UniProtKB/TrEMBL annotation:
<dbReference type="InterPro" id="IPR029058">
    <property type="entry name" value="AB_hydrolase_fold"/>
</dbReference>
<protein>
    <submittedName>
        <fullName>Alpha/beta hydrolase</fullName>
    </submittedName>
</protein>
<dbReference type="InterPro" id="IPR000073">
    <property type="entry name" value="AB_hydrolase_1"/>
</dbReference>
<feature type="domain" description="AB hydrolase-1">
    <location>
        <begin position="40"/>
        <end position="225"/>
    </location>
</feature>
<dbReference type="Pfam" id="PF00561">
    <property type="entry name" value="Abhydrolase_1"/>
</dbReference>
<dbReference type="InterPro" id="IPR050266">
    <property type="entry name" value="AB_hydrolase_sf"/>
</dbReference>
<keyword id="KW-0378">Hydrolase</keyword>
<dbReference type="GO" id="GO:0016787">
    <property type="term" value="F:hydrolase activity"/>
</dbReference>
Length: 250
C-alpha cells in the first residue's frame, strides 16, 4: 500500500475519542489518520453507515479498537470493495449471547450507566477503567488520560453506545469472507476482550496475522503505542487485494 498520506480510519471504542488513538497515530504520521466521533449514534450499523458516508475516498485502510472493531466489521460487510486493509484490536465478533450470559452483560452495563448518572462519568470511569488496563497503568498519566476521555462524554452518549453494543450484529459468518490483509491484535493482559477470542478470529480469517502486545490490557493503542504502531506499519505494508464492487441491480 502506498504511504503517501493514504487514508487510515481509526475507529474508537466505547466512550473513546481521538485521544484513544492519538499515541499510536502520532507514530504513523505518514498516513492520513482520521478518528470519527460517534455522537448519539446508537447502533453498530448506524456507526458503519457514518464511516462510509463521511469518507469520500473510494478505498481506505480501516482499524477498529474495541467497539470500533465491531463497527469495522460492519463497514466491511457493507462495502468490502472500499476496505484495502482491516485491523481488529481488542475486540469481538459475536452477537449478544443468550440466557444467563446476556443477563449478566446487560446488568453490568446497566450498573455502570446508573453510576454515571448518579456520580458522574469520571467516578464511573474509575471503577470501569481499572479493569480495562494492565495493573501497572493504574494511577499513571495513561490512566488519567483514559479518565479524562471518559469524562468528556456524558451519560446519554454512554446509554446510546451501550444500546449499540447490546444490539451488536453477529459477524461470525463474515470472517471467512474477508479477503483484504488483516491484522488481529490483542493486549496479552486484556481481560475484557481476551486473547483466546482473537486467536479464534485470526484462525477464521484467511491470511490474518495475530499480534500479541505484551504488558498491555484492553487499551493497547494508549498503553503500548510503539508496539501497536509497529504491528500496524507491517500490516499496512502488505499489498492490497482488489475486491470488485457489488453489482447494482436495475
Amino acid at each position: 500500500m502506498s504511504t503517501e498520506r493514504s487514508p487510515l480510519l481509526l475507529l474508537p471504542g466505547l466512550l473513546c475519542d481521538q485521544v484513544a488513538w492519538a499515541p499510536t497515530a502520532a507514530l504513523l504520521s505518514e498516513f492520513d489518520c482520521r478518528v470519527p466521533a460517534w455522537g448519539s449514534l446508537d447502533t453498530i450499523e448506524a456507526m458503519a453507515d457514518h464511516v462510509l458516508a463521511t469518507t469520500p475516498e473510494r478505498r481506505f485502510a480501516l482499524a477498529g479498537h474495541s467497539m470500533g472493531g465491531r463497527v469495522a466489521l460492519e463497514v466491511l460487510r457493507r462495502a468490502p470493495h472500499r476496505v484495502s486493509h482491516l485491523a481488529l484490536l481488542d475486540t469481538g465478533y459475536q452477537a449478544l449471547p443468550d440466557g444467563e450470559a446476556a443477563d449478566k452483560e446487560r446488568g453490568g452495563r446497566a450498573a455502570l450507566l446508573a453510576r454515571s448518572r448518579a456520580h458522574g462519568m469520571r467516578a464511573m470511569g474509575q471503577v470501569w477503567a481499572t479493569g480495562m488496563v494492565h495493573p501497572d497503568r493504574i494511577g499513571t498519566p495513561c490512566f488519567d488520560a483514559i479518565l479524562d476521555m471518559i469524562e468528556r462524554s456524558n451519560p446519554d452518549q454512554f446509554a446510546a453506545q451501550i444500546h449499540a453494543l447490546l444490539g451488536r450484529p453477529d459477524a461470525t459468518a463474515l470472517l471467512s469472507d474477508v479477503r483484504c490483509p488483516t491484522l488481529v491484535l490483542c493486549g496479552r493482559q486484556d481481560t475484557w476482550s481476551p486473547l483466546s477470542r482473537h486467536e479464534v478470529m485470526a484462525a477464521r480469517i484467511s491470511g490474518a496475522v495475530l499480534s500479541v502486545i505484551e504488558d498491555s490490557g484492553h487499551m493497547s493503542p494508549m498503553e503500548r503505542p510503539e508496539a501497536v504502531a509497529a504491528a500496524m506499519r507491517a500490516w499496512l505494508a502488505r499489498p492490497a487485494v482488489d475486491v470488485p464492487a457489488p453489482e447494482v441491480s436495475s
